[in-house]
Amino acid sequence: MYAFELQELKTALLDEIQNAFKDKKNPMLVEYEEQTENLLALAELMSKEKDLMPQENFDLVMGQDYVILQLERWIEDNQKIISHWDNNEESLKKH
Length: 95
Fold this sequence. Notes:
elongated
């Protein structure tokens, strides 16, 4: 995958992630699930991208590691919310 295509894909995923919730005060379970899937895909892309970076560029690699770590935390938070979701159709207040 070329760098330009990779960047376009990452940008599209970020847009999907940021716009995951129609009602930001009362998101639905399916929205959390979709956002989590997009976060997982983005983290995977960024990990592959990091592997292709010149390892001599320590700051760039460390910056990528930091972003991946933040994505993993966000994924964990979403997975906790999803796993504790009530089995009814009500929405859960966003944390």
